[in-house]
From TrEMBL:
A Pfam family this chain is assigned to: COQ9
Keyword annotations: Lipid-binding, Mitochondrion, Transit peptide, Ubiquinone biosynthesis
Gene, per the UniProt record: LOC107470052
Protein name: Ubiquinone biosynthesis protein
Family designation: Belongs to the COQ9 family.
The organism of origin for this protein: Arachis duranensis
Protein's job: Membrane-associated protein that warps the membrane surface to access and bind aromatic isoprenes with high specificity, including ubiquinone (CoQ) isoprene intermediates and presents them directly to Coq7, therefore facilitating the Coq7-mediated hydroxylase step. Participates in the biosynthesis of coenzyme Q, also named ubiquinone, an essential lipid-soluble electron transporter for aerobic cellular respiration.
Pathway info: Cofactor biosynthesis; ubiquinone biosynthesis
GO cellular component: mitochondrial inner membrane
Signal peptide feature range: none
Any one GO biological process: ubiquinone biosynthetic process
Location(s) in or outside the cell: Mitochondrion
Length: 123
Protein backbone atom coordinates (compact mmCIF):
# COMPACT_ATOMS: atom_id res chain seq x y z
CA UNK A 1 0.00 0.00 0.00
CA UNK A 2 1.41 3.41 -0.85
CA UNK A 3 1.47 6.17 1.76
CA UNK A 4 -1.46 8.08 0.22
CA UNK A 5 -3.85 5.13 0.12
CA UNK A 6 -2.56 4.03 3.54
CA UNK A 7 -3.46 7.38 5.10
CA UNK A 8 -6.89 7.35 3.43
CA UNK A 9 -7.48 3.80 4.65
CA UNK A 10 -6.52 4.74 8.20
CA UNK A 11 -8.78 7.80 8.05
CA UNK A 12 -11.70 5.70 6.79
CA UNK A 13 -11.20 3.12 9.54
CA UNK A 14 -11.00 5.80 12.24
CA UNK A 15 -14.10 7.50 10.88
CA UNK A 16 -16.04 4.23 10.89
CA UNK A 17 -14.78 3.25 14.31
CA UNK A 18 -15.58 6.56 16.01
CA UNK A 19 -19.02 6.63 14.36
CA UNK A 20 -20.01 3.11 15.37
CA UNK A 21 -18.75 2.69 18.94
CA UNK A 22 -21.50 4.66 20.60
CA UNK A 23 -21.43 7.89 22.55
CA UNK A 24 -17.86 8.85 23.45
CA UNK A 25 -19.17 10.36 26.70
CA UNK A 26 -19.66 6.84 28.08
CA UNK A 27 -16.06 5.88 27.37
CA UNK A 28 -14.81 9.11 28.96
CA UNK A 29 -15.90 8.07 32.44
CA UNK A 30 -12.94 7.61 34.85
CA UNK A 31 -14.01 4.07 35.70
CA UNK A 32 -13.49 3.11 32.03
CA UNK A 33 -9.90 4.39 31.71
CA UNK A 34 -8.01 1.09 32.34
CA UNK A 35 -10.23 -0.85 29.95
CA UNK A 36 -10.06 1.96 27.42
CA UNK A 37 -6.24 1.91 27.32
CA UNK A 38 -6.16 -1.84 26.76
CA UNK A 39 -8.86 -1.71 24.09
CA UNK A 40 -7.15 1.21 22.33
CA UNK A 41 -3.85 -0.72 22.19
CA UNK A 42 -5.61 -3.69 20.59
CA UNK A 43 -7.56 -1.41 18.27
CA UNK A 44 -4.58 0.48 16.86
CA UNK A 45 -2.75 -2.78 16.27
CA UNK A 46 -5.75 -4.19 14.38
CA UNK A 47 -6.15 -0.99 12.33
CA UNK A 48 -2.51 -1.09 11.23
CA UNK A 49 -2.82 -4.76 10.31
CA UNK A 50 -5.99 -3.99 8.31
CA UNK A 51 -4.08 -1.22 6.54
CA UNK A 52 -1.44 -3.76 5.51
CA UNK A 53 1.31 -2.79 7.95
CA UNK A 54 3.80 -5.52 8.78
CA UNK A 55 6.43 -3.48 10.62
CA UNK A 56 8.37 -5.41 13.25
CA UNK A 57 11.04 -2.89 14.27
CA UNK A 58 10.91 0.42 16.15
CA UNK A 59 8.43 1.64 13.51
CA UNK A 60 5.86 -0.77 14.98
CA UNK A 61 5.81 1.28 18.18
CA UNK A 62 6.00 4.63 16.44
CA UNK A 63 3.11 3.92 14.08
CA UNK A 64 0.89 2.66 16.87
CA UNK A 65 1.70 5.67 19.03
CA UNK A 66 0.80 8.05 16.19
CA UNK A 67 -2.45 6.21 15.48
CA UNK A 68 -3.45 6.04 19.16
CA UNK A 69 -2.93 9.80 19.36
CA UNK A 70 -5.06 10.36 16.25
CA UNK A 71 -7.85 8.24 17.67
CA UNK A 72 -7.73 9.91 21.09
CA UNK A 73 -7.67 13.47 19.75
CA UNK A 74 -10.57 12.66 17.42
CA UNK A 75 -12.60 11.30 20.33
CA UNK A 76 -11.83 14.38 22.42
CA UNK A 77 -12.79 16.64 19.53
CA UNK A 78 -16.02 14.68 19.10
CA UNK A 79 -16.81 15.19 22.80
CA UNK A 80 -16.18 18.93 22.79
CA UNK A 81 -17.61 20.07 19.45
CA UNK A 82 -20.96 19.32 17.92
CA UNK A 83 -21.94 19.71 14.32
CA UNK A 84 -24.54 17.99 12.15
CA UNK A 85 -23.41 14.43 11.39
CA UNK A 86 -20.07 15.21 13.06
CA UNK A 87 -19.00 17.20 9.98
CA UNK A 88 -16.50 19.25 12.01
CA UNK A 89 -15.09 16.10 13.62
CA UNK A 90 -14.38 14.52 10.23
CA UNK A 91 -12.75 17.74 9.00
CA UNK A 92 -10.62 17.71 12.15
CA UNK A 93 -9.70 14.05 11.58
CA UNK A 94 -8.83 14.73 7.94
CA UNK A 95 -6.48 17.55 8.94
CA UNK A 96 -4.81 15.46 11.67
CA UNK A 97 -4.34 12.48 9.33
CA UNK A 98 -2.72 14.71 6.72
CA UNK A 99 -0.38 16.09 9.37
CA UNK A 100 0.44 12.71 10.89
CA UNK A 101 0.88 10.91 7.62
CA UNK A 102 3.79 12.96 6.68
CA UNK A 103 4.78 9.55 8.07
CA UNK A 104 8.42 9.59 7.25
CA UNK A 105 8.89 12.84 9.14
CA UNK A 106 6.64 11.84 12.05
CA UNK A 107 8.24 8.42 12.49
CA UNK A 108 11.74 9.82 12.17
CA UNK A 109 10.96 12.40 14.87
CA UNK A 110 9.47 9.77 17.17
CA UNK A 111 12.36 7.40 16.45
CA UNK A 112 14.87 10.09 17.40
CA UNK A 113 12.92 10.87 20.58
CA UNK A 114 12.75 7.20 21.60
CA UNK A 115 16.42 6.70 20.77
CA UNK A 116 17.32 9.75 22.87
CA UNK A 117 15.33 8.41 25.82
CA UNK A 118 16.97 5.01 25.56
CA UNK A 119 20.47 6.46 25.23
CA UNK A 120 19.96 8.68 28.27
CA UNK A 121 18.94 5.62 30.27
CA UNK A 122 15.33 6.72 30.63
CA UNK A 123 13.98 3.42 29.31
Amino acid sequence: MDESSNSQGIEDILNTRTTNVGPPEQKAQPVNVPTSFKQRAILVDEIWHAAGDNASDIDWYAKRTVLARLYLTTEIYMLTYTSPDFHDTWAFLDARVKNAFDLKKTIQELHQTLLGIILRGGY
